[in-house]
C-alpha cells in the first residue's frame, strides 16, 4: 500500500500520519506515551487531567482521526482554519456599537455569519427595529458592517472618498477578481459623471437606436399567450444598449461581447461571493479552486480581443483628424475614456477590465429593475392601463418622435411606479456602503476607527412608517402624489438620492449611472406596454426575491406569459 507521511508536532514529539488512498492511520511516537500527555507535559492542564483521563481522551481523538478519509481530514482542517481566523481577525466597528444577530449570547459567531448569507433581510430588519437611531453591527463572513442610522447621512456625505470610500467598500475581493483597477483610478466613474450624465438624453437616443435593432431579436413576438423568461430578454436588450453607448458599432452587435458582458457580472458576483466566505489568508489557495474565476479570466480575454481593435481604431481616427482621409467613428464612452485616461488607464488589459466592470455595474441592475416592474404590474394588473395611457399621451404630445429630452420627464406615473417597485425590490439591502480609510469622529462624538465598514439600511429606511406611511401597501403613485401635492415637481423622482431613498446610494459617490438607468428602464417598459400584454402563468403569482448576503435578486426561474396587444 502506498503511504505518505506528514510530520506533526514540534520536533520533540515525533508523530506522523500514514495517509493511504482512503483512510488516515495514525502512528504516534512515543508509542506508549500519549500525544496529549506529551503535549501537556509541563503545562498547568496536567493539574486537572490525570494520566487515565489523558489516555481516554487521546484514544477517542485517535479513533476519530483514524475513521476519517484524507479529504475529510483536509476539510476539517480547512473549516478549523476558517473558524479560528473568524475569531482572531481584526474587524473594526463603530466604537461601542452593539453586535446584532445572535440568538443567544452563547451562539458562536460563525453561526451568525452563516445565517447572514440567506437571512440578511431579517437580521438587518430586526437590528433596525431595535436600534433605529443608534449604530449596530452585523456580522458577515468576511467583515463586520456597522449600520448607521440615517441621522448621520448629512455628515457622512460630506466626507471625501479619501476618507470614506465607496469603491473600497465594494464587495468584489478586488485582488482575485481583477478589479483592483477600480480602486487605483476612477475613470469609470468620471466618464459617467462628466460625459454620460451631462449628455444624458443624447446617449439615451443613441441607446434607443440599438433598442430598435434588438427588439425583434431579443423580445419574443407571440400572437398568443406564451410563457417567456422576461429576465433573460431584458438582460440581452440592456446589454445591447449599454454596448452601443460604451463601445459603439459593430461591438454592440457582436454576440460574443453581449454574452461576455452578461456572463462577466455573474462570474464576478459568484467568485467574490465564494471568496468572501473564506478568510483573506486562504484566498491565494481558494481562488484557484473557484470555477467561476476561470470563466472570469476567459471573459477578460474576450474583452481584450474585442476592445483592442476598437482602441486601435480610435487612435487611427485621432491621427487622421484634419487629413483628407479623416476616419469617422461613433461617439462612444470608450473614446472619451481614451481621450481622458492616462497612460496606464489606456493600456489594453486595464481598459478591457474597466469596460467589463462597467457592464457589471449597469446590465443586471437595470434589467432587474424592468423585470421587477413587470412582476409588480402582473401582481397589480389594474396599473397596466394607467401606465400605458401615459405612454400613449406622451407619444401624442411629442408627435410620435419620442426624443428622450421630451418623453423622459413626462413619464411621471411610470417614474412613480418604479420608485415603489424598487422599495419592494431593492437590488441591495445596505446602501450606501463605505470604508473608513482614516479614523473618524462624528460631530456627536461617535468614533469610527480606520478600517470600519459602514452602511445604511436603505431598505428598512424606505419601509419605515415615518418615511412611507402604511408601508405594507403597494401604492405605486406615492411619489407622483407627493410631487404634485407639495408642488416639489423636481423632487422624489426615481434616481434622485435623498436621505429617505438610498436605492442608488448617496452623496457624491452615489451611482453615477442612475439617470441613464432610469431612462433606459422607462424607454424599454414604454415599448413593452405599447406592444404587449403580460400576466402570470396559471397558478403562479409574484415570485419571491432571493437573497445572497445583502444582495437581492428576483427568482431566476420566474416566468411570465406575454402576447401581442390586441
Ligand atoms: C437600476 C439600476 C441601478 C441601480 C439600482 C444602481 C445602484 C447603485 C448603487 C447603490 C451604487 C453605490 C452608490 C453609493 O455607494 O453611494 C452604484 C454604484 C455604481 N453604479 Fe449603479 N446602479 C444602477 C445602474 C447603473 C448603470 C446603468 C450604470 C452605468 C451606466 C451604473 C454604474 C455604477 C458605477 C460605475 C458605480 C460605482 C461607482 C464607484 O466606483 O464608486 N449603475 N450603483
UniProtKB/TrEMBL annotation:
Keywords: Heme, Iron, Metal-binding, Oxidoreductase. The keyword Transmembrane does not apply. SUPFAM superfamilies: Cytochrome P450. Heme binds at residue 511. InterPro entries: Cyt_P450, Cyt_P450_E_grp-I, Cyt_P450_sf. Its cofactor is heme. Pfam families: p450 (PF00067). GO terms for molecular function: heme binding; iron ion binding; monooxygenase activity; oxidoreductase activity, acting on paired donors, with incorporation or reduction of molecular oxygen. It comes from the Eukaryota. PANTHER family: CYTOCHROME P450. Belongs to the cytochrome P450 family. This is Cytochrome P450. It comes from Delitschia confertaspora ATCC 74209.
Amino acid at each position: 500500500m502506498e503511504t505518505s507521511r506528514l510530520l506533526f508536532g514540534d520536533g520533540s514529539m515525533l508523530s506522523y500520519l500514514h495517509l493511504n488512498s482512503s483512510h488516515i492511520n495514525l502512528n504516534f511516537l512515543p508509542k506508549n506515551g500519549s500525544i496529549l500527555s506529551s503535549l501537556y507535559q509541563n503545562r498547568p492542564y496536567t493539574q486537572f487531567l490525570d494520566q487515565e483521563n489523558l489516555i481516554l481522551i487521546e484514544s477517542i481523538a485517535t479513533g476519530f482521526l483514524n475513521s476519517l478519509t484524507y479529504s475529510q481530514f483536509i476539510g476539517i482542517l480547512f473549516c478549523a482554519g476558517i473558524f479560528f481566523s473568524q475569531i482572531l481577525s481584526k474587524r473594526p466597528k463603530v466604537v461601542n456599537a452593539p453586535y446584532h444577530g445572535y440568538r443567544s449570547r452563547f451562539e458562536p459567531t460563525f453561526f451568525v455569519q452563516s445565517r447572514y448569507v440567506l437571512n440578511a433581510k431579517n437580521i438587518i430588519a430586526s437590528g433596525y427595529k431595535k436600534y433605529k437611531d443608534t449604530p449596530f453591527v452585523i456580522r458577515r463572513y468576511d467583515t463586520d458592517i456597522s449600520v448607521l442610522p440615517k441621522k448621520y447621512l448629512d455628515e457622512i456625505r460630506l466626507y471625501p472618498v479619501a476618507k470614506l470610500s465607496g469603491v473600497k467598500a465594494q464587495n468584489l475581493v478586488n485582488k482575485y477578481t481583477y478589479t483592483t483597477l477600480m480602486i487605483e483610478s476612477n475613470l469609470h466613474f468620471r466618464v459617467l459623471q462628466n460625459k454620460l450624465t451631462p449628455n444624458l438624453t443624447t446617449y439615451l437616443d443613441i441607446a434607443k437606436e440599438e433598442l430598435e435593432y434588438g427588439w425583434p431579436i431579443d423580445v419574443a413576438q407571440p400572437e398568443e399567450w406564451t410563457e417567456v423568461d422576461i429576465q433573460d430578454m431584458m438582460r440581452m436588450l440592456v446589454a445591447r444598449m449599454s454596448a452601443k453607448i460604451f463601445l459603439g458599432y459593430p461591438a454592440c452587435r457582436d454576440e460574443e461581447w453581449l454574452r461576455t458582458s452578461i456572463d462577466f457580472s455573474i462570474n464576478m458576483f459568484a467568485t467574490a461571493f465564494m471568496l468572501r466566505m473564506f478568510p483573506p489568508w486562504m484566498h491565494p489557495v481558494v481562488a484557484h479552486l473557484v470555477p467561476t474565476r476561470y470563466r472570469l479570466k476567459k471573459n477578460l480575454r474576450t474583452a481584450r480581443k474585442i476592445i483592442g481593435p476598437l482602441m486601435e481604431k480610435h487612435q487611427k481616427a485621432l491621427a487622421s483628424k484634419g487629413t483628407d482621409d479623416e476616419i469617422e467613428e461613433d461617439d462612444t464612452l470608450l473614446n472619451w475614456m481614451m481621450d481622458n485616461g492616462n497612460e496606464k488607464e489606456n493600456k489594453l488589459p486595464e481598459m478591457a477590465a474597466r469596460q467589463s466592470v462597467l457592464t457589471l455595474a449597469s446590465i443586471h441592475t437595470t434589467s432587474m429593475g424592468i423585470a421587477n416592474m413587470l412582476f409588480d404590474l402582473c401582481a397589480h394588473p389594474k396599473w397596466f392601463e394607467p401606465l400605458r395611457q401615459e405612454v400613449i399621451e406622451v407619444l401624442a404630445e411629442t408627435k410620435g418622435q419620442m426624443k428622450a429630452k421630451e418623453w423622459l420627464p413626462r413619464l411621471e406615473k411610470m417614474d412613480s411606479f418604479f420608485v415603489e417597485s424598487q422599495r419592494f425590490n431593492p437590488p441591495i439591502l445596505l446602501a450606501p456602503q463605505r470604508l473608513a480609510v482614516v479614523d473618524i469622529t462624528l460631530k456627536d462624538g461617535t468614533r469610527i476607527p480606520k478600517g470600519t465598514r459602514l452602511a445604511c439600511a436603505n431598505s428598512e429606511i424606505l419601509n419605515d412608517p415615518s418615511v412611507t406611511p402604511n408601508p405594507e401597501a403597494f401604492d405605486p403613485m406615492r411619489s407622483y402624489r407627493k410631487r404634485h401635492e407639495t408642488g416639489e415637481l423636481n423632487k422624489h423622482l426615481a434616481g434622485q438620492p435623498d436621505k429617505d431613498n438610498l436605492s442608488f446610494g448617496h452623496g457624491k459617490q452615489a451611482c453615477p449611472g442612475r439617470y441613464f438607468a432610469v431612462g433606459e428602464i422607462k424607454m424599454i417598459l414604454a415599448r413593452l406596454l405599447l406592444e404587449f400584454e403580460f400576466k402570470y402563468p396559471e397558478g403562479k403569482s409574484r415570485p419571491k426575491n432571493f437573497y445572497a448576503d445583502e444582495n437581492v435578486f428576483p427568482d431566476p426561474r420566474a416566468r411570465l406569459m406575454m402576447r401581442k396587444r390586441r
